[in-house]
Amino acid sequence: MEAEAAKFIGAGLATLGMIGAGIGVGTIFSGFLQGATRNPSAAGGQFTNLILGAALTEALGILAFVLGLLILFS
Amino acid sequence: MADPMHQFEVHKIVDLPDFTIPGLGRVDMAFTNSTMAMTVAAGIIVLFFAMVTASPKVVPGRLQLMGEGIFGYIDNLVSSIIGHEGRKFFPFVFTLFLFILAMNLLGLFLVFTATSQLAVTATLGIMTILLVLIVGFIRNGANMYKLFVPSGVPWYMLILVTPIEFISFILRPVTLALRLFGNMLGGHVALKVFAGFVVSLGAMAAGGGLGLLGIPGAALSLSGVVALTALEFLVAFLQAFVFAVLTCVYLNDVVNLGHHH
Question: If DSSP codes are grouped into helix, strand and coil, which group holds residue B235?
Fold first, then answer.
C-alpha cells in the first residue's frame, strides 16, 4: 500500500474515537433531561454542571480530531 | 473546491525586525493577521465597556443592562464555584471569558479566528495552569500533594489513584488548549466544506443536463451552512463559557483544598 493512502486511512480511523465522545455527551444530556423533567425547579442550578460534563467528555472527541489532523498534516 | 485549511494561514501584515531573547533564540516579531484579530478583539471589549459605563444610571438602559448582565453572570459563576473567596479571581476569569468570546465571535464575522491557532489557546491554557499552581503553592505550601491524594482512600488504592490524579492534572492545560482549538478549527472547517459544496454543485448545475441535479444538493448545503453558522454562534459562546467554568473549577481545587463547601 502507498504511504499516502495509509495516511488517509489512518486519519479516517482516528476520527472513530469521536463515537465514544458522542455516546458520552448523549448520555450526559439524557441524564440531565431525565432529572430535569422530574424536578424542573432544580434544573436551572445544574446548567453549569451539565456544560462542564459535556465539555470534559467532548475533550476526548477533540483529541481524536486533533490526532486525525496530526496524521493528515505531518 | 477551496482549500478549507487556507483560512487558518498566518501571514505577516507588518514585518518588524527580529528580536533576540537570550536562552530562547530569535523571535519573529512580525505583526500578523492573528495579532491583528486579537488586537481588534481586545479593542472591541474595551470600547464596549467604555460605552456601557459612559453614563451609568440607577435604572439601566439597554446597553448598560447588557454589560451588567455579562458582568453579573460571570460574577455569579465564580462565587458559586469557588465560594466567597472567588471574588479575588473574578477579574482573571472575566478577562479570559470576554477575550475568548470576542475572538470566537470575531472569527464568525471576519476571515480570521485567533482561537483556531493552537499557539493562542495553548498560551491561555498555560497562563491558567500557572495561576492555579502559583495560587496553590502560596495558599497550601507543601500541602499541595493533597491534590493528588484524595482523603478517605485506603493506601493500597492510593498506589493506583495518585498516578492517575497526577496525569489528569498534567493533562489539564493540554485539554484546555485543545478543546478550544479543536472546536473552533472543526467548526470553521465544516463551514468551509459545506460552503465549498454549494459552489461546486452550483458549477455542476450550470453545465446543464444531468448536472441540474446539483441544484437541490446546493440548496441543501446552503441551508446546512446557515444552520451550522447558527450552531457556531452557540459554540463560540459555549467554549468561552466552558473555559471560564473550567478555570474556576481548577482554581477551586487549590483554593479550597481539603475542605469542600
Answer: helix
Number of CB pairs < 8 Å for A and B?
Answer: 39
Of residues B15 and B247, which shows the higher confidence score? B247
Question: What confidence tier does B226 reach under pLDDT thresholds 50, 70, 90?
Answer: very high
Model pLDDT for residues B199-216, shown as the tens digit of each residue: 888 888 888 778 788 888
Q: Do A59 and B175 lie within an 8 Å CB cutoff?
A: yes
How near does any CA of chain A get to the CA of B84, in Å?
18
Residue of chain A minimizing CA distance to B171? A59
Instruction: Residue B104: name the closest of B169, B180, B217, B53 by CA.
Output: B180
- At residue B1, the pLDDT reads 53
- Comparing alpha-carbon positions, the chain B residue that sits nearest to A73 is B5
* B80 chain-A contacts, CB cut-off 8 A: 48
d(CA B230, CA B213): 27
State the pTM of this model: 0.87
- ipTM here: 0.79
- Write the DSSP assignment of B51-114 as a string of letters: HHTTS--SS--HHHHHHHHHHHHHHHHHHHHH-GGGGGGHHHHHHHHHHHHHHHHHHHHSS--G
